Amino acid sequence: MKRCLRRYPPRVLPERLSEEQARWLAGRWPFLARDDQLPPDFHHPGACWRVWLFMAGRGAGKTRAGAEWIRARALGARKPLRIALVGPTLHDARSVMVEGVSGLLAVHDRDERPRYEPSRRLLTWANGCKAQIFSADEPAALRGPQFHAAWCDEIARWRAGVEVWDMLMFALRLGNAPRVLATTTPAPMPLLKRLLKEPGVWLSRARTEDNKGNLPATFLSAMRAQYGGTRLGRQELDGELIEDAPGALFSRACMEENRVRHAPPLARIAVAVDPPATAHAGSDACGIIAAGIAADGHVYVLEDATVSAASPAVWAAAAVRCYHRHRADRLVAEVNQGGDMVEAVIRQTDETIAYQAVRATRGKTVRAEPVAALYERGRVHHAGAFPRLEDELCAFEHLAASGHSPDRADALVWAITTLALAPRAAPRVRVV
To answer: Distance from CA of residue 153 to its chain's centroid?
Structure first.
């Protein structure tokens, strides 16, 4: 029965069921929740965990999941439980976790709703369970009490995150298996990074898009158009933890600051190709990047057309299509691995391509440094968002040092070098 009913979005259920059935179903969270909104025990009975970390985008249903977990713990308790509710501030804890549209008061039926005493920061259920409200701005307040369970909201926004968490862990000492649910939109904060590495932490993830049945379509389309693929969008909408490696050659901050929606009129456009050394399953991808340079010398990255491990004919065709799509002036290809074969497979696809071969004589990092300097000076702009390319750029040194080829980043370095840093060599054009 559960499997059948959960095929339908929650907003459709009342139309398919009688009023009595719909009212009964509305109070049965496991029938309505997505898998990521349910605790680990629901999927894996007997799972060993102390912390359930629910890391998700804005509006993905984190608050509802937290409130429903506390409701189930309190109403299902055989003896009174003591519960901690910890928000970034006291106002956040009250207005979101307790009084919010998906908060604790809202998820209870009237006859089961706990008594709420805002002045005492306390909720009390009829069976004697009590939930006490705390602010993460007051770590010392957690020194005295002790608890069976806790719900911590938006831990990435806690200003004294590690200190508050440690105080809570000392207080979480009642019962046989005290547990905590931490719900948050991620940010590269010390506490969150620590939890992701600790044993006994069960991680659930969700995107804003996953909750589209409960969000306005106009909101989702506007967010995708404005922030899709950007660092902010990946963090706030997709629930990804995005951080830069210390001392990284390329900075996400530079990319975000200089990102544009559209490129201006361009003086020249180049498509750069970083061919893979082999074409078998598991081999490197073929990096294909289109970029152009404007009259003022600023470079605009136009497309990441990279293809996964494929035969030479496949990646050559993809590169040629990209070349024509952008009406490029030349196609630049690194020939260290393939030599004349690279030009040959490209010519087999289109003999009229304006082709230029380039050969690497220095290490990857050395070649990339002048390009990184252009980024730092604000002279390179991404016309749109290219998540996988940007991830490679920010991990460039690590990938190069570990023997993994940053295919997209390599192709980008060749494209920008050709447009803005290298002498203008004449491409070879075959007239047919």
So the answer is: 19
Each residue's pLDDT tens digit, 270-308: 999 998 876 554 457 899 999 999 999 999 999 999 998
Please check whether residue 181 is in contact with residue 83, taking contact to mean a CB–CB distance below 8 angstroms: no
Query: 407-416 and 364-376 are packed helices; what angle lies between their axes, rounded to 10 degrees?
Result: 60
- Eight-state DSSP code of residue 113: P
The full length of the chain comes to 432
Residues 6+ apart with CB under 8 A from 154: 87, 88, 92, 183, 184, 185
Domain coordinates in residue numbering, the chain:
33-220, 252-429
317 vs 309 pLDDT, higher one: 317
Burial class of residue 247, CB neighbours in 10 A (0-12, 13-18, 19+)? exposed
Under DSSP, is residue 342 helix (H, G, I), strand (E, B) or coil?
A: helix
Q: What single-letter amino acid sits at 140?
A: A
Distance linking the first and last C-alpha atoms of the chain: 68
Q: Is the overall model pTM greater than 0.70, yes or no?
A: no
Ranked by mean pLDDT, the top range of 35-49, 164-178, 388-402 is 164-178
Q: What is the pLDDT of residues 152-173, one digit of tens each?
A: 999 999 988 899 999 999 999 9
What is the second-level CATH architecture of the domain 252-429? Answer: 2-Layer Sandwich (3.30)
> Where in 165-286 does DSSP place strands (E)?
179-184, 201-206, 268-274
CA R_g for the chain: 27
pLDDT band at 10 (very low <50, low <70, confident <90, very high): very low
DSSP secondary-structure letter at 307?
B
Q: Which amino acid is at 326?
A: H
* CA trace torsion 143, 97, 180, 62 (10° rounding): -150
pLDDT-derived band at 415, boundaries 50, 70, 90: very high
> Taking the mean position of all CA atoms in its chain, how far away is CA 245?
16
CA distance 41 to 51: 12
The CATH superfamily holding the domain 33-220 is P-loop containing nucleotide triphosphate hydrolases (3.40.50.300)
- The SS3 call for residue 304 is strand
